[in-house]
Amino acid sequence: MICNCLVELSHVFFDKTFSYIVPKDLQKDIRVGMRVKVPFGKQELEGFVMSISNDKNDMELKEIISLVDSYPVLNAELLALGRIIQSMTLSSLMSCYQVMLPRGLKAKQNTNINIKKNKYITLNKDIDNTKLNESQQKIVSLLNKKEKILKEELNKISSSSVKTLLKRGILFEMEEEAYRYNIEKNEKKDFDLNNDQIVVFNRINSSLDENEIFLIHGVTGSGKTNVYIKLIEEVIKRGKKALFLVPEISLTPQIINRFTSYFDNIAVLHSRLSDSEKYDEWRKINEGKVDIVIGARSAIFAPLKDIGIIIIDEEHSSSYKQENSPRYNAIEVAKQRSKYHNCPLVLGSATPTLETYARAKNGVYTLLELKNRYNGMNPDIEIIDMNKEFKKTNDYFSETLINNIKDTISKNEQVILFLNKRGYSSMVTCSNCGYTEKCPNCDITMTYHKTSNMLRCHYCGYARKKEKECSSCGAYYKEYGLGTEKVEETLKELIPEANIIRMDVDTTTRKNAHEKIIKSFQKGEHNILLGTQMIAKGLDFENVTLVGVINADISLNFPDYRSSETTFELLNQVSGRSGRGDKKGKVLIQTFNPDHYAIECSKYNDYISFYNKELSIRKKLNYPPFCYIALIRIISKDYEKASKMSYQIGEYLKDKIKEETILGPSTANIFKINNEYRFQIIIKYRNVNNIKKYLYMLQERFFNDKSIKLEIDFNPIKL
To answer: Are residues 423 and 484 in contact, defined by beta-carbon separation less than 8 angstroms?
Structure first.
């Protein structure tokens, strides 16, 4: 018996499999998709079994050393899916498989994780247990009331009594796997769908046995989650499984709380779980013990069988696109999985991407709409012109915002304040000579974090203590810009009664930090939640009646064709956090650009007007949805080499590709990161087959070049 194995080789670009003889003692157990340990030169490597044959081979082959698994970690669907992702992203096949698996199951040496087991004691009811001492009687009495009890709990009564009863056969000992991630069951809250929701539900429910893509375009607070829950109930009744994706880890706790009110057998997959927790959750899914998988981007690879529906909430979120290799988009992967399982794919958003909405309008997707809030009350949205306010206060907080915050918390209601920046201030600059502290590794200013008195680079992680005096001229530094720490400090001075909790990257680094912050705010322990993008989407607090946006303009100023779309989406989403209970909500948006169409459309919650305006601009400039984009990055520690090579690659592509538009090369928006210089070329294309062959050849050419790194990203979120 011969098997072909895919092993990870950093020095080989193409995905070559290697043939090995399967020893007789392994032949009955080996299967395609398993990990095996194989000899490779002088080393031992792990790889995936890609095929098995009984053909005789005249070549002199080595034997497999051992099987790593007792079952395939990649099923037939995932093996086929890996090849599709490889083609879509031009990544190595091995990287496409590795990204599907938790660390404990990747084909790498020494990554195995042990299964945790608990010892339980049960009672043998077929044997006489009358002649017992006091402690033995107590143990037996407990087991008469409860089917099984942890051995360690009974040992607390008397370990010697447990030992004696086991020897006499009165007790049995058994082992059960103990999962390291446990979900708390919540009290069920019944609800009925309103008329609008029933229409959406019925349309999707009628297609549960078909591969159809739906877009639910529903305003924030329209009750999309209620529709999802009812659809999943139907799927489970049919004996099938559901896959539910959310964009942010911060949303996972609230979604889990909602779902555990209605469903049992839920697994969770996201990056904040420990390696051992991910390993346990993955195996639970693989063994068919769960009906629903909830998770962020990587959960799209959950080894569910018999998927009956895939739901992707907040489909507009950029976090569904992976930024390192393989650069897949979870929505594109979901399309492949829904096709394989012949089930519907449901995309939901109040602010779908222009590409998604255009496909829905053109009939590629089925468009379903929820135009009204579930509680029937839209928040009042007011735009505050900071050009006028800044002259009055010379501060980042308008009088209107401060007065509304005071009024809201005086009524024992809660406030969410959104700031698109973490840290204390954006930068530290010398007021005398103008010198600005920059990261020595990157072409970017460092952000000041006051609590630790550190300057940090948010790109490479470099950090150092902030000095009081300018390293250039010796004068005192001044902090410019605004961060969440500074907002918190200033608010406490302006509103002493403010009880603020912050939610940003800095406050959520510890395990379960998101959940603790959300629960604390939900219980009313704080009256102001201050945060960055992670508080803008999906969170549901009934007592929040005021949302304040401190700096609506930051994302407008990004040098990216999506900047207006990103701004509108953020403002619309964060506005949706206000007035979700039985009280009317209010939203105050501070801006220096009150006449910009993204800001104006946000005021009236008018997605259609924004879509039409933005679409006309994209059409004139030939940007998606009127074309696709491929981004080629040329990266090197040697500036001259990166510059020269980027021009050579640009000339090569312009010579070979005549049917599509090629822009560049130019320097990347962030030109230097971690001591590497970055150039880029943009290809606007309509037919990927016109460009794929040449990009593949470029990748092959530079794969072994240690001085130049080439990155290819199809339909990137950021340019």
So the answer is: yes
